[in-house]
Amino acid sequence: MAKAAIVAAFSESEPPKKKATGRPFVKGQSGNPSGKPKANREITEMCREAGPDIIKRLIQIAQSGDEEYALPAMKELLNRGYGKSENISSIKIESGENLTDDELTARIAELEAKLGSA
């Protein structure tokens, strides 16, 4: 009889509520009401003032010939001067088996343009 009472108690109770997926916050209310913290203006200004000297030092290191330090300095200078290059692996290469000569030529030109701007 006790077993029947336990089964009856569980069958009458509501199933546990599941957490809503995709909306961890109250609808219409920001999860970060304070927003991104403001940068310390004093530190930002100091970095900007030192910027030209730091770049000159990076150029010296890049031209030093010591590859351990020169290569990272070169990379940083190029990234700052030209922007980071596109990741080559993000370029999708499809089979050209079913393409006409004109379509294949156009596709090659498109890929060359992407690689040239990288």
Task: State the main characteristics.
single chain, 118 residues, mainly alpha, 56% helix, 0% strand, flat
In a nutshell, what does this entry contain?
With 118 residues, the protein is mainly α. It contains four helices and no strands.
Structural class: mainly alpha
**Unreliable spans:** none
- What sort of overall outline do the alpha carbons produce when their principal axes are compared? flat
**Mean pLDDT over the full residue set:** 78
Describe this structure in words.
The protein has 118 residues and is mostly helical. It has a domain at 49-84. It has helices at 2-12, 41-62, 67-82, 101-117. Helix 2 (41-62) crosses helix 3 (67-82). The longest helix has 22 residues, at 41-62. The protein is flat. The mean pLDDT is 78.
Helix and strand topology:
Layout: H1 2-12, H2 41-62, H3 67-82, H4 101-117
Helix pairs in contact: 2-3
